[in-house]
Design brief:
single chain, alpha+beta, 7-stranded antiparallel β-sheet, 3-stranded antiparallel β-sheet, 18 strands
């Protein structure tokens, strides 16, 4: 049976109850009882029985939930995911929709189909694929820019001196972050292994267009950015983001190279040599690099991504912990690509491009997000204080799963589900 949960947060303490709404202590709407949080926190601290807490909570939760979401649209989101599962587009998934501190989150289908079926759970850990770009590499680069250790418009060769020749010396950090460097999509993966070999190949790759003249999504851009983090921070990318981002934000299930203790909760991906990849990154380039690349390799959960999204909506701060200055968040989520390329792309974050499916048909320009090859996606709309996360392992047990239509449908339904927000007049540009 699929269930959603309500999390009542009180400091660092948390209780779980099976209902379909999550109310956080950050709710600040003036129409809601200002004493609610105080009452719940006091009961938690006094160790009253959970039944008493549940009774009080359920007496006020339905009105708050009804003021936030249209139930028919949530049901439509459920149905869309279940249909995708029935049609073998993914084995299962986890949805997290949050608006102004109230969330609807739920697990669907199966985490694994082979070698034996396993039910999906909300704490399932997924291979983030290209969400690594915005959950690891981009924030690492932005922290170093904020600290004046990297200059946004400096040539990448200032930090990787061997990245020169054939026009490569003109490529800037900004162009790497906006996929306007002119580099091809990926490294070929024939007969090579090792992180150092990948960097050497990336530094010798031929440009396909002059820097700043075309938008071409490229993993090589972020492989190079991950190496720049390593050289400037003087520590590997995985160590830097753990120390500077995941630890402070309490994203306890987020990181590269997950330990064996977490394998039972990891959603497997493709079957390779007769066994599904589980805890090993699906991306072949990142796998050849040892599991850590600026383009792929991160693992995480829906709840951890939700913490990151709240931090972004709060302009760099969450629960009293500041990760970025507000200006840094605004910079990375505003259009940064040259106007000549005719897409809207932030620093790392997608705004309006051929990859903007999770935005749906209603979230406005100014919202932003990203997708991952394995079936992961996130979209954040600051104007309505809303974000929607859908995580799946659509390439388990084979690469035949396709959730592109589902992503767009969930994005549209997410916007329609918010009570009291009219997106119909929002400016929107969409690509095929």
């Amino acid at each position: 049976m699929n269930r959603s949960f309500c999390n009542i947060h009180a400091g660092n303490r948390e209780k779980m109850m099976p209902v379909c709404v999550c109310i956080r202590h950050t709710i600040r709407k003036p129409t809601r009882p200002s004493t609610l949080v105080h009452s719940l926190t006091s009961m938690l601290k006094s160790s009253m029985r959970i039944a008493t807490l549940a009774a009080l909570f359920l007496s006020v939760a339905p009105p708050l939930f009804a003021q936030t979401f249209h139930p028919d649209k949530l049901a439509a989101m459920d149905a869309a995911i279940e249909t995708a599962i029935t049609n073998h587009q993914c084995p299962g998934g986890v949805l997290w929709l949050e608006h102004d501190g109230i969330a609807y989150h739920k697990a669907y289908g199966h985490r694994a189909l082979v070698p034996r079926p396993e039910p999906m759970t909300e704490d399932t850990i997924f291979d983030m694929a290209s969400l690594t770009k915005v959950m690891a590499t981009t924030p690492a680069i932005m922290l170093l820019i904020e600290r004046c250790q990297i200059q946004l418009d400096a040539p990448a060769c200032d930090y990787i001196p061997e990245f020169k020749g054939q026009g490569r010396e003109r490529i800037t950090i900004r162009e790497l972050l906006t996929h306007t460097s002119g580099l091809p999509p990926d490294l070929e993966t024939n007969e090579w292994h090792g992180y150092a070999t990948a960097i050497k190949k990336a530094c010798a790759i031929k440009l396909e267009s002059p820097p700043g003249t075309a938008f071409k999504y490229s993993d090589i851009n972020f492989i190079l950015l991950g190496e720049i983090v390593r050289r400037v921070a003087k520590m590997p990318l995985q160590g830097f983001v753990q120390r500077e981002i995941y630890g402070p934000l309490k994203m306890t299930d987020t990181g590269f190279l997950p330990p064996k203790s977490k394998l039972p909760r990891i959603a497997p991906t493709e079957v390779v040599n007769g066994k599904p990849l589980r805890g090993l990154v699906d991306d072949p380039t990142a796998r050849r690099m040892g599991g850590v690349a600026g383009s792929a390799g991160l693992f995480s959960t829906a709840s951890d991504l939700a913490r990151n999204a709240r931090m972004m909506l709060n302009l760099g701060e969450l629960d009293g912990v500041r990760i970025f200055q507000p200006e840094t968040v605004k910079l990375m989520t505003a259009p940064q690509a040259p106007s000549a390329v005719k897409v809207l792309h932030g620093l790392g974050w997608d705004i309006d491009s051929p990859y903007s499916g999770p935005r749906g048909n209603l979230f406005p320009i100014g919202s932003y997000g990203h997708t991952g090859w394995t079936g992961t996606s996130i979209w954040i709309d600051p104007s309505s204080k809303t974000f929607v996360i859908f995580l799946s392992n659509r390439n388990h047990p084979t690469d035949a799963g396709d959730i592109l239509p589902l992503r767009r449908k969930l994005g549209t339904l997410a916007a329609q589900a918010i009570v009291g927000v009219d997106f119909t007049n929002a400016p929107a540009t969409h690509y095929p």
